[in-house]
Amino acid sequence: MEVKQKPPAGELVTLWVNDRKVEAQRGESVASALLAAGYTSFRKSPEKGEPRSPLCLMGVCFECLVEIDGVPGVRSCQTTVCEGMKVKLSR
């Protein structure tokens, strides 16, 4: 199946990821916005400190956990971006 036309771009919102400005489309998940912005590692594994990335993108695997607006352990794949949101990734 060939896609003949792209869907229209949505309204942009600004969020802050580790103090870096990132633009995202209103209505998309935080995980999608982070992946689109080039972030590949969202957190570190607790035992070995290895970088972890989202796997399922449907809230089951918990690999996409981030801190959002001061709240740790938020599933970024289940959270919609909001204007001015502050996201912290484990580094």
Return the structural class.
Answer: mainly beta
The number of helical runs is: 1
CATH topology descriptor: Ubiquitin-like (UB roll)
The CATH class turns out to be Alpha Beta
Report the major sheet. Answer: 5 strands, mixed
Would you identify the regions where 5 or more consecutive residues have pLDDT less than 50? none
How many distinct beta strands?
A: 7
- Which percent range describes the beta-strand content? 25-35%
Q: What shape does the CA trace take?
A: globular
Q: What percent of residues adopt helix (DSSP H or I)?
A: under 10%
Keywords for this entry:
8% helix; two-stranded antiparallel sheet; Ubiquitin-like (UB roll); single chain
Write the layout of secondary structure elements.
Blueprint: E1 12-17, E2 20-25, H1 30-36, E3 43-44, E4 51-52, E5 65-68, E6 71-75, E7 86-88
Parallel strand pairs: 1-7
Antiparallel strand pairs: 1-2, 3-4, 5-6, 5-7
